[in-house]
Amino acid sequence: MPRTFDELVAEAAAAPVDGWDFSWLDGRATEQRPSWGYQRLMSRRLADVSAALDLQTGGGEVLSGADKFPPTMAATESWPPNRARAAKLLHPRGVVVVATSDEPVLPFADEAFDLVTSRHPITLWWSEIHRVLRPGGTYFAQHVGPATMVELIEFFLGPKPAVGAERDPAVERAQASAAGLDVLEMRMERLRAEFFDVGAVIYFLRKVIWTVPDFSVDRYRDRLRELHDRIEVQGPFVAHSTRTLVEARKPT
């Protein structure tokens, strides 16, 4: 028997949302993955350097998938619950997890790393990336692109024609270049996502808090009920994300 709106809401509102493990959504939502396989490509690069830094590592879930770490491996994270998860996951493998604020500067010496990586960084500090890279060093990352989840955002907030415009690849290319980096690759793909029940939407919005910044179940309960009724009649709620693969090098 299908669960009621109230049951789905209560379950999703009580689910823990620390870390970047989205397995709670298994069977309840899907998101297409980029064709390039970021974690695999990151792992290859980590195996070939002597010192690397992973920025905004979250709970360390993506970084921990690397087969081999260089002799010096550090990761940063600002949110304490995620930092605790990352430390538990990465410390046994010799990775130092460093607490940072949400503002620059990075707590590392100039030219400390051969490689800087990041998957879905919230903020981009191009000048700091340039500073901590050694000459010839590389920044390799997967960014969240423009208009990600715009359908979901607009369902709750109304029309938002310029969502994520600052993450347009052309804008990021210009910013990286202005910081002194040579952009080797900047490739974007648009990907389909489906939410099969309102609980999946609630969980996603509680976890990815910048999607609808003022989201709470109480504040948006009427819209959530409308969304529940829509899914019941029309099927999954469809949205789209964009992802950008970025590779840039500090000149020698």
UniProtKB/TrEMBL annotation:
Q: Which UniProt keywords apply?
A: Methyltransferase, Transferase
Q: What is a GO molecular function of this protein? A: S-adenosylmethionine-dependent methyltransferase activity
Q: Which residues form the Methyltransferase type domain?
A: 53-140
Under CDD domains, the record lists: AdoMet_MTases (cd02440)
The UniProt entry, under SUPFAM superfamilies, shows:
S-adenosyl-L-methionine-dependent methyltransferases (SSF53335)
Task: Output the Pfam families linked to this UniProt entry.
Answer: Methyltransf_11
Q: What's an example GO BP annotation here? A: methylation
For this entry, the protein name equals Methyltransferase type 11
Organism of this sequence: Mycobacterium kyorinense
